[in-house]
Every structure is written in structure tokens, then in C-alpha cells.
Queue: 2 jobs
Job 1
Amino acid sequence: MTPADVVLEVTDLSVAFPTEDGVVRAVSGLSYQARLGRTLAIVGESGSGKSVAGMAVLGLHDPRRTRTTGSIRLEGEEVVGASEWTLQALRSTTAAMVFQDPMSSLHPFHRVGRQVAEAYLAHHSVSKAVAHQRAVEMLDRVGIPNPHRRANQFPHEFSGGMRQRAMIALGLVNNPRLLIADEPTTALDVTVQAQILDLLGDLRREFGSAVILITHDLAVVAETADDLLVMYAGRAVEQGPAREVLSRPSHPYTEALLRSIPSPSEDAAQLRPIRGAPPSLLTPPPGCSFHPRCAFSDGMGAVCRTDAPAWRPTPGVVNRHLRCHLADPVAAIEIAGGAR
Amino acid sequence: MLTYVLRRVALGLTVLLATLVAAFLLFFAGPADPAQAMCPEQRCSAERLVEIRANLGLDRPLAVQFSEYFGGLFVGRDFAFAGDVVHCSAPCLGMSFLTKRPVSEEIFSRFPATVLLALGTVIVFLTVGVSVGVITARARGTVLDRLLIGGSQVFGAIPYYVIALVFALYLTRIHGILPQSVPLSQGLLGFLAGLIAPCLLLGLVYSAGYARYTRSSMIEALSTDFVRTARSKGLPEVSVLRSHALRAAIGPVVTILGLDVAALLSGTLVTEKIFEIDGIGKLSIDALGRDDLPVIMGTVLVTAFLVVTLNLVVDVAYSFIDPRVRLS
């Protein structure tokens, strides 16, 4: 039985795209939960499957070009294999999404107010005037000055930060229980980034909804997330409370990610990028998909190259999961020692 | 916006003037002798030819003739034909050598038929062509898509006059499924009924092209982020397709539509001939066949005027489609 505050329960989700060159396995065996009032950050490099997993929650992948298996339950309702009609009813009301690039995600030919009002109208039988009024209120709520005038403008008349605020207003117009923000600050200036993240935090507290923040930026995670899920090559590799995972990473990938962040006290020469490149999702490496880039796999013998590690709860720690052959207690201590 | 339109109007007028000069030089300075053309069965004495030329004003310097023609466009002219004076009111495009009526009257009397034919055709191809384009873009890669697009390509590859002849022969003559054409003077309803077959035929032929333009434009639009946003709002698929994807995809279609409407309004030679519709196309063919220079020149000018005007209309329409254009 799922606890009442779990809005989203993803179980063994796999998303694959058949192409002419073969099947791209963008997400494999992903399981996680999102809870009301909490922010879950999903972190990973480009191509780690984090955005694909986010879009799958709203059933936004074209079923004719995608193979989705496993289960996604939004407030108990199954999304995988759901009819178009069921998905339409869920979208924007139960779960809404804020996309990465607000310039290309807003329709260039429609007025901003109309784009927000349209989402409200799709789920409420009210007049256009009422929906417009609601749109203006939402624009005001996300901190857009002069919302009445702004509602009648086009996206190209907005600045980048204002556009992303409009996208957030659009995402929240139907009071969704879950808001998925896919790299919401990547296209923005650093100062605007902070404002948008603060806004998301305020709104989460005010509406009490669950937030999934998809990002590659660990600094953003440290500031905003309650829980953290790290993805690599379409799989979850580590999951737990954000503070704990960031301070005591257990997976070599998480650890390498943290070490690749430059800190002001270090020289640029000491910057330690992760060696190698993310694997192809068409032909992922055998065994653990991180092993070609892992600093510890050589010391582990053949097991990392031949066997895929399982997704296991970390013994003795509540609510932490890990996918690594090093997960036995002895090896974990060695990693912790090596990190310092 | 206003300065933009004014600039476009000025440019359009320049194009029209250039067309006028070119057409005038080609026809009046060209090899065809209008006086010969006006003679019944080409048997006039040399004196008679000189007299005809004098009547037509063809013996005067080219510059004088041009300025008279140009002035006639705005204030009208008087022509003397064998003692009678015929007034040609503005915009005067000269007198037909053959019917001795003002060219503008000849053109305007045939305009309703051509306009109605064009209108019906546009309605058919916008409905059929754009719908097929939207459906095939949505069903890209499926059997339905391949059938419709493949079919339209085969259809578009057959020479038009072959399709037109077969269509007219079987549907209106042999089987009488669709009514045959009746002149407009014999009643509007019969005339409109007679237009069904040619409108359907022309419309379907144009649809093949419009289906392909719309399809490629829609495929691009369907992959945009804002269409994904529209889906994420929980909008019904119909409104995602219509007010988001098609709205973004329609620009290129409107551009081609402008040119096609201009072409349709300046007469559809083959269609009008085969279906016996007395429109601009038939007028131009008849004029060409009988060296009726003023009529040919008049249709050329009217065509140029339509192309320039519709291009302007398209540009203005574009600024309504895409608000970003309104700024520049």
C-alpha cells in the first residue's frame, strides 16, 4: 500500500525508441516516488534519460515511436498504456510540466495570457473571460509585473526570465499535485536562475504539491532538493535524501560528478572532469554501464564488466538505494576513504 | 506597419509600370502587324492597310502612342472606327481590334466566370489538400500516409490536360454524373452547377501539391517544443493539431496560396477551354490566335496587377499570422 503523500510512483519503468540503427534504450528499470510538499531532483548528464523519464510521466511520448514498459502511477492512475483521453484529463491537473527552453516552449503566435488560459479552459467549464482572469492572476502570482498588460503580449515581447515565469504560471494554472520542471533554469542568467528556483520553492510550499526538478546542476540540487536521484545511461544509480547523498556519495559516478564541480578554493588545473564520455544508449557497455569510466572498476575484477549491478537498498540506511558492485560494506568504506 | 505597406505598394507600382513598358514594346514594336490582323481574311489593299493604321494611331511615334495608352489607363480615351467615335472609359486598356469594344469591357465581362471558378477551386484544395497534409503528417510513416502521398504524387505527375480531358469526358459527357457548363447569361444556377466539375478537378489537382506542402510544414511543426507544451496542457488532439501545429505550419502554405490565386484569376487556359467556360483564359487564347494585340496586352497587365496585389495581400496576411513580423 502506497503512503497517502506519494503522488507519483514509478516502478521498473523502461522507455525505448526503436530507430533504423537499433533500439535506443533511453530509460531502463527506473523506480522512484515523488511525495507531496517535497522536491525530488533527478540529476544526470545529457542523454542520461532524465528528461525522457519526466516526459513519460505525462505520457508525452508518441506511442507509435516509443516502447514504454513498467508502471507509472499518478495518484493511483496508471499512465503507461493509458488512453489519450485519460492522459488528457491527467495532464496539467494531476501533473504539469515546465520545459527547458521557454522561448521555444511557448507558441510564438499566441498571446501569453491566452496560452495560460487555454490550459485552464481545457479542464474547467468556464467562460473565456473567467479563464483569462485566472491567467492574469497566475501571471501576477509568479511575479510578472503588469500582468494585465503582459497577458496580451506575445512571448517575443518577454525577457527570458519572464518567459520562464509565464511557463511556470502555465504549469500551475490547474493546481497540479505534481510539477515536473525539466532544466527550468538552464537557458537563463545566473541571477534569474536563483529567482526562478526561489519561486519554485515558494510555490511548492504554498500549493503543497510535489516538485520533480530535472537538472544537471548539482549546485541547484544542493539549494533546492529534498531528495536526489542520480541517473546514468538510462538507469538510476543512486538515490536518497539530497543532503546525505551530496555529503556522502556512495556511487563512484555521484562522487565523480561532485568532484567535477569547480570550487573557488581550487585552481582550474585541479578541476577533475569525469574521464571518457557518456555511453551510447544504442549499444551500452556490458555489465555496469559506468565501468569504462569508473575509477574503482579495475580493482573489482571482472564483475563490473560482466554483471549489471542490481538496484538495492543500502543496508542500515533508511530510504537510500544504490546500483553498484562496490555496495558491500568493505568496498564502500574504501570509496569513502578514497574520496578524501 | 503602415510604412511597410506603403513601401510594398510603391514597389508593386514599379513592377506594374515595368510590365506595362515591356508589354507595350513587345506587342507594338513587335513583328505582328495589327492592321493585317484586322483585315477580313487578310485581303486588304495597301491603301486600306495604311488607312487602318492611321485609324488605330499606329503611324504615330511610339512615345506618343505610349503616352496615349498610359493616359487612357487613368482618364479614358476616344477611338475613331470608320467614322464612329467609341469612348473607352478609364481604366482604358485599348480597343479590341476584332470586336471593336474596349478591352477592359471584354475582360470584366469574363471576370465573374473566372472568379467563381477560382473561388470554387480554392475552397476544394484548401479543404482537401490541407486536410490530407495534416492527416498524413500526423500519421507519418504509416500505410495511410504512404498511400495518400504516393497517390497524390502519381496524380500530380500525369499531365493536367490528360486528366482534364478524361475527367470532362467521363463525368460530364458520357455518364453525366456532373452537370455540363452553361453560359452565365442563361442563368446563374445552371452556370454554378456547371462549375462543379471544373472546380472539383482543378481543386483536386492543386490538392496534391497543397497536401505535400502542408505535410512537410506540419511534420516540422509537430516536432516543436510548443506543440509538446500544448499536449502537456491536456488539450484535445484536435486543438493541438489545429490551433497550435497548423497555426504554425500555415505560413508557407499562405505564400503559395497567394501565387496560385493570382494564377487562377488570370485565367485557366486548359480548364476553360475543355469545360467551355467563357473566362479570362479563353479570352486570352482566342486573342492570341487572332493577333488581337490590345486584348493580349490587357490580359498581361491584369495578370501582373493580380500577382502584385496578391503578393501584397500575402505579406499583410503574414503579419497577422506571425506577430513577430509586425515589428519590422
Note: The two ends of chain A are 41 Å apart (CA to CA).
Job 2
Amino acid sequence: MTAPLLDVQQLTVLFEGARSTVTAVDNVSFQVAAGETLGLVGESGSGKSVTAFSILRLVPPPGRIAGGRVLFEGRDLLALPEREMRQIRGARISLIFQEPMTALNPVMRVGDQIAEALTVHGQATRAQAWARAVELLDAVHIPDARRRVRDYPHQLSGGMRQRVMIAIALACHPALVIADEPTTALDVTIQAQVLDLLRELRARYNLALLLITHDFGVIAEMADRVAVMYRGAVVEEGPVRQILRSPAHDYTRALLAAVPGMERR
Amino acid sequence: MSAPLLEVRHLVKHFARKHGLWQPASIVKAVDDVSFAIEEGEMFGLVGESGSGKSTTGRCILRLIEPTSGEVLFRGENVLGFSRARMRQARRDLQIVFQDPYSSLNPRMRAGDIVEEPLVIHKLGTKTERRARVEELFELVGLDAAHLSRYPHEFSGGQRQRIGIARALALHPALVVADEPVSALDVSIQAQVVRLMLDLKERLRLTYLFIAHDLRLVENICNRVAVMYLGRIVEMGETRALFAEPRHPYTRALLSAVPVLDPDTPRQRVPLDPASFDPAAPLRQVATAHWAAV
């Protein structure tokens, strides 16, 4: 068996306060193979987003990675110098956030924001980057990309903004995309379009996807495997069918039972 | 058949949208000729996506927003014609639970005072009687009466929504407009709050107008449902019939977009083609207890 693309081993993240310390991520281990989608599911406070941010070493202070290893393409990201880490962030591993309005820069044209991802990583000159931005907007099915590339975020709908976010995430041909609740802020019909788009791009570029969500419906549609987080720990992990049909852990069962409509199926 | 508890007739709400100092304002038809009726004891679902006008409809019924035109008949009387004093009286019967339990509770008031406030406004009971009623309400919604003097931030999201429900129930309302009451909550907490609302409905003989975007939830708890799209009701009927056999292209697209919880069920997305239907078509009966604007 070949080594997985991402191998998180015994990751522990602490938030240290003056009086107490919270273990936000508690000895978490999981793997994502190239081209695979792992769903990381849990409720608020379960530590799923902190886990994702830890992989990119973006845990906000007072949070601190206290232990573990994050092996990506064979290297331990937690041991890399910051300069090398910067070449991975946004290039080999990119991130799609929940809220496209706050994640995009409101005073920058979307084309410049896509181009920035490329020029920062030295992958293109400005002119090349602009041409590539148009291509990427086309790839995420934004109609009339040549004109839309000059738009500011506020001129786009929520679904369109999320497509721009995805275009930025794809700009440098990442091997892994971390999507943190990518459709939570969207209406259900727009969510369906964005999920369809992610599925299409995943196949076209052989992307591995770490999909963070609280929605088992999204998991069922997208994930190959699922890891369920509860209070900072992974309490259950397995293939999506197994988790949905015969969950082993009490918390997973409770979570599934809470999804409307689940009990009848 | 007795008269419905609530009847909304040709409700219209237009907002003027200003574009700049010298440009003429344009009109947004947030609610565009909406009519429906709710029988006593029903859980009536009003569903739609953002901007469909579902929340505006709910607020117009309570006159939290003044509608442009139309009628809202509560027990046969037109609420929109009520004087200020009469409206205040009517609000005892018509209550609302808001979506966001964080912004809808005054952070500087104690939980007990928040629940008591409607009683104070309506000058009901003595101080002691009101306190007793607040304790009763706390227990009714599953909160600990020992926490009456806590502030909202000391409660979790689900508990805050219980405070909001207790406040809505303080005056023994007949109709509760629940405007996305659980969409800000985690799914396990959602299930608890929904169970509470269903339980209270039976115990207190409540009628709900349940506004939501979560179709899976509505399918499970509402007996009838109306689907709104761009300010209009495009389909309405008994939940089971409407979900089993949606007639309007928008309803079909909407239902097909809901993620299926079984990875082996083939996805059959129905794309919405706005050219495939007449946006001005009136509702017509397509089956028993089932109407669609087709």
C-alpha cells in the first residue's frame, strides 16, 4: 500500500487560558488518500475546524499545536520552517471557507484575487495570471467569465462568490482541498450546484477533499469515508455507507437520529 | 367546516429600493399576492429560499412590518384594520419565535425578566403571580427555574431558544409564528427544540406557522405546507402529497436539491428552468387538497 497523501497522527491542540486549558483537538488521527474525500463531521465545538486549521498551521492564538504529526506528501508539516510552509499553503493544500463574503477581499476585483494566488506562489506573471483567472472562472462555470473577472465580490451572488472561492483554491493545482462548511451559508438549490461543481472538479483534477460539515446529507452525497468528531476526539471512522447504515458509536447514532427524516429510511 | 384560525388574503408587501440620490427608486415585490389559511391545531409550513418572502409574510401577519395591502383575518377579524390598542390586545394571541436566539434576547436582561416582560406590558397579575407564571413557563420549556436570574450569555443556543419560546407562550397565544426557530442550532439540539415545540402544541393546543428553509424538517413535522418563490406561493397542499408529487417546476427543483441521506440513491437533480413556467400563473387545484401555480 502506498503512503496516504495526508496522514494526521495523534494531533493535539490546546487553547491555554489564564486559569484553564481546553483540549480542542485530542489525540486525533486520520488519513486521506490521493483523490479521496474524507468527511469530518461534528457539531459546533467538536474541534473539526480547529483540526483543519491545524493541518495548515493556522490555529489562531491562544491555540497551540501541542503534539502529533501532520504528514503530507511524506513531509511533517508541523516541523517545516515557516517559509516552506508558505509554499504549501494555498498551493499544494488550499482552503475553502464557509462564508464567501468575509473570505473574499471586498475591495479587490475577483480576477485580481485569483491572480494573486498564482503570483504569490511565483507560478505566473501578472498577465498570465489574469488569463488563468478567466480560465478558472470558466472552469467553475461562471457565465461570461471574461467580463465577470472584473467584478467585485459584492456584485456576485452568494453561490457565485463560493465559485470564486473554489477558483482561488484550485488556482495552483492543489493535491488537497480543505473545505470548511463550504455550502452551509447557501440556499439548498445553490448548495446542490456547488456540490455538483466540487464533485466534477474533484474528478477532473483528482483532488483529495477534506470536507468539514455538520450535515450528514452533504456527507452522504460527497464523502468516501467519514470521521465523526465529538469533544475534540474522533469517536468513529469508516466508509460512508457503514457509518450511515450501522453506526457503532452512541454519539454517531444520536447525531444520525437527530437528522430529520433519518428514522424512516 | 368552521372558519380557519388565520386567513391571509392577497397579502402584498413592496419595498422601495433606492439606488442613489438621483436615480429613481425601484420596487421590490417581497410578498406578491399571497393567500393561505391555517386551521386551528395545524402545523403549517411556509418554505422557501432566501429572498422568497417567507419571513416578510410572517412579520406582516403580526404587523411587525406593515403590509402594503391585503387582509389578515384572525378569527374572522381583519388584523390590519386594528387600532394600536386593539392590535396590542391581539398580540396576546399572536406571538413569534425568532430565528436567532442570540440577537432576539436582550443581553442586559435576566432570563426571568425576559419571559416576564410580556406579562408586565399587558399588566397581568401581581408581581408574585407573574413570578409564579415565569417559573411555570421555565419548567414548561424544560429550563431550570433556578436559572431565572441568569443572563442570556450564560445559556447555550438551545436553552436560549427555549427562553424565546417561553416568552412567546407567556400570554397563552393561539397562534405562534416560528420564523426559522431551529436553523441556528446544531442538529441534535434542533431535534430537542422541535420535539419541545410539538409537545407544547399538543399540551397547549397551539397552532403554528412554521417558517423554514429546511425541507427535511418541514416534511417531518408539518401537516400542510406552502412553497414560496420570489414573493409568491407556487405550491400548497398536504405535506405528504406535495412531497410525493410536486407539481410546480420550482418545487421539483427545490426537492431534488435536498441531499439524500443514502449514498446509493441515485441523484436526480431537476434544474430550474425559469422559462418552463409562467411566474404570474395563479394557484389552481391539481388534486385533493393540493394547489399549484401551473
Note: The longest strand of chain B covers residues 26-38.
